[in-house]
Structures are given as structure tokens and as C-alpha cells.
Amino acid sequence: MTLVETTIVAGYTLGDLMLVAAAGFVLLAIAMLYRAIKGPTMQDRVLAVNVLGTNTVVILALLGAALAEPWFLDIALVYALLNFLMAIAISKFTVERGGVI
Amino acid sequence: MTMITPLELTLFVFVLITAIMTALFRDVLASIVIFAAYSLGLAVVYTFYRAPDVGLTEAAIGAGITTILLLLTIAKTTRPRHDETFEKINWPAAGVCGLFALVLGATMFAFPAVGDPNAPAMTNPDVTVYYIENAYQETGVENAVTAVLAAYRGFDTFGEAVVVFAAGVASLIVLGREVFA
């Protein structure tokens, strides 16, 4: 039994509450999609997807804690790095028209 | 049937919206950006279903490499300006695709539930049970899927790597260059 399974808050374990929080963050991700789809400029979309990536890192960390699977953090780390790389790549592309990626 | 948690449901809605939008955007760059968001959602789905290798691959290939490859592609080609944001939908084609998805979806009910101990794959003593019982002792890899992929089918995976390498060398020869970039 781990801490997330034994700690009870208002009848729910801490793990359950974290799962609910993760579901809330996924709902927020859908809200962020509005900006990514509506645009209107490419910068808006890049920024929206960048925020989505950060949101994903939070979701993965919450899931890792809730399900007691610490390796979720590895994927979260890879995502944090790739998210940064992707934003740089797309920004560079829009400025220099694919000059240096 | 296992219950779908609210978390899964919201993830599915997210993945579905991004997938449809990737197809609908008229501007290629917008499509690429939304496709990256689609990859983010899908990687979380894989990770939630305890498939770390698939999740990591989706993160690295789907969001990282694919985005950069597609960006390089449109850098070498022309990107026409569009007035409309969204593609016009070809309804007959959409209908055919929808029917195909329905036919595929109809087979879903034939699958055993996730983690069902009586599923054919779990009761096959020659393959699955052998891997589950012996994978750790024989390979020292904790994840059975990784053990099968990298150890038991090591030569197969090695062959795939050789094919990718050969393809890279061949394209360099065709291009008449010594390095990519």
C-alpha cells in the first residue's frame, strides 16, 4: 500500500482525487484546443500547442502519482524536452522559411 | 465490459477533435501544429494504458521527428496562401470513410475485455505464458513487451534497423550528397 492509496480525503483515496484532477486538466486541454483551432495567426496556434504540451506534462505527472507508476515521469520529461524543441522548430520555420531547423 | 472513466472519455474527445481538425485544416502548417497536439493526446492515452514504450515512441516520433520532417518538407516545397481556414468536406468520401470506421468498430465487440484472464492470448501456453513466466529470468528486462521486442525478436528488430539504414544510404546516393541537412 502506498501513500496515494492509504490517504483518505472525504471518502476518496488521494489517488482517486489525483485522477479527477488529471481529468480536469484534460478538460482544460480541450478548452485550449479552441485557440489552437481558431487561430487566427500561426503564432497563436504554436503558443496553444506549447501550452498543451506543458499541460500534458502535468497530466502525466498526476497520473504517475495517482497510479503509483513512477516511470510516467520519464515520458513526461521526454515530452517537456520535445515540446520545447517543437516550439523552437515551428517558430524558426515561420521566421526563416525553413532556413535552419 | 469495463467502465470508461471520465479521464479516458475526455482524452478520447481530445484525440478525436485534434484528429478531425488535422484533416480539415486547409493550411498545411496549421495541420502540422494540430497534429502535434494529436500526438500529445495519443501519448497520454498509451501511457494511461501502461504501454510505456509505445507512449515514448509516440512522443519522440509523433510530436518530435514527424513535425520536423513535415516542416522540412514544406520548406522545400511551396505553401500556397488560402483564404478559407477549413477544407471543403467531400461528403461521399466522408460517408465511405464513416462506413469503413463503422465496420471496423463492429469488430470491437468480439475482442475480450482488457486484462481478461480467459482471453485467448493469455491462455496460450506456448507463446504468452512462456514469455510471462520466463522473460525476466532469461533477459533481465522488466517489461515483457520490451523483452520480446529487443531480446527474443532481437534479430528481427536488427533487420528493421538495417532496412532503415539502407534506405537512408540509398536516398543519400540518389541525392548525390554525403550528409542529410
Describe the protein in words.
The complex is a heterodimer of chains A (101) and B (181). Chain A is mainly alpha-helical. Chain A has one domain. Helix content of chain A is 78%, strand content 4%. Chain A has a two-stranded antiparallel ribbon. In chain A, strand 1 and strand 2 form a beta hairpin. In chain A, helix 2 runs antiparallel to helix 3 and helix 3 runs antiparallel to helix 4. With 181 residues, chain B is mainly α. Chain B has 2 domains: 111 residues, NADH-ubiquinone/plastoquinone oxidoreductase chain 6, subunit NuoJ (Four Helix Bundle (Hemerythrin (Met), subunit A)); 68 residues, no CATH class. Helix content of chain B is 71%, strand content 0%. Chain B is built from 8 helices and no strands. At the A-B interface, helix 2, helix 3 and helix 4 of A face helix 1, helix 2 and helix 3 of B.
Question: Can you give keywords for this protein?
Answer:
heterodimer, A: 101 residues, mainly alpha, two-stranded antiparallel ribbon, 4 helices, elongated, B: 181 residues, Four Helix Bundle (Hemerythrin (Met), subunit A), 2 domains, 8 helices
